[in-house]
Amino acid sequence: MRLRHHNFTIIVNWMEKGFGCxxxxxxxxxRASPLLPQGAQxxxxxxxxxxxxxxxxxxxxxxxxxxxxxxxxxxxxxTMINTIKAQNFNTRIITRELQHVAKLKGISDHISIxxxxxxxxxxxxxxxxxxxMDVEFSLVLPPLPAEALVALKPQYAALHKQxxxxxxxxxxxxxxxxxxxxxxxxxxxxxxxxxKSVCLNSRYLSTVDCDGHAIVQDNAVLAGYLMNDxxxxxxxxxxxxxxxxxxxxxxxxxxxxxxxxxVMAILAEQFAFTFKEVSPPNSYPRYFLGKSVRAGKTxxxxxxxxxxxxxxxxxxxxxxxxxxxxxxxxxxxxxIGEANIRHAIHTKTAQLAQGPRSMELFHTDRFSIEQRHxxxxxxxxxxxxx
Length: 386
Ligand code: SF4
Hints:
This protein is of the alpha/beta class. The chain contains 13 helices and 18 strands. The protein has helices at about 45-50, 70-85, 115-125, 145-150, 155-165, 195-200, 210-215, 220-230, 235-245, 260-270, 305-315, 340-345, 365-380; strands spanning about 10, 55-60, 90-95, 110-115, 135-140, 165-170, 190-195, 205, 210, 230-235, 255-260, 275, 285-290, 300-305, 325, 330, 350, 385. Strands 7-6-5-4-3-2-1-8-9 form a 9-stranded mixed β-sheet. Strands 10-11-14-13-12 form a 5-stranded mixed β-sheet, with helices on both faces. Strands 15-16 form a two-stranded antiparallel sheet. Bound molecules: iron/sulfur cluster.
């Protein structure tokens, strides 16, 4: 009998070039990961990896979707499954490609279907094909504070009843809020929570053989650093998420201003970021784009010379709703006022700030940047008041 031990997962992306998933989720962290495989891992790499597993099964997961364009990639998948079975392990496949699930009867031992709105709508068309198969559903929890997740528990219980199969709730890596797993217990095995600590300590084969810490960013730890470093000013979508995570559920890049070059060194050392300067030589302030080898968010960093300039940068934004930031606590443009800014954030209202504004700290191409920002706000459901 195998002892309880870490999960072993093979991250697949069948595409030799590009990303093998039919979806385009805005929160997808894998799409741009430098550790995303391009094409199938070799028999030798898979064999060496799974030999270390002490559990009874190996998971095949995205990266891209393991069942992406199954007709084209079936041979790759079957070869991987056969390599795993040859060493007496069962296989578990995580997918959203409902239409292909039944084709894996007798081929994969367990299937875990990741839920989203489209997948939910398609289940009834396929579920009667899954008799005799071990199929469960999994759902990534929204990146919300614990109390908001607890309030959703009755909905998860109702969903479980509707699905009539095991429901696995996964803690969200993009969440910056701590979650005590006991709060999400349901008292039976029909709904279980997988805390992110389980995944971070699991073993993965992507382009490298590593543990979860090496390939996935835990945004709670990253946010913990950014929110507590006195030299870090957070602004933009991430700051809105910190202030009102229910209204601003998702965030894209993390916008940071700092007067301390050392912030980049800390982000590099502790969170595996590499920064590239994207501003012209000798310009002020300096702009940097930070990408981490761990699947996670990009950091856009503006380097200024003083705290005054950090605040000046934020307080001259085009819309009132953007004239606030976080530097060991929220701060607000006094000309607009905290109450007005909080209200604008909560109601998703972007009003053009009145009065003259200083453009001296902005990029020479600020006009285009602001046009793009306006489009993004509209896409996110903001009401724009010119
Ligand atoms: S389904 Fe998964 S892999 Fe595909 S885009 Fe969405 S998050 Fe990324």
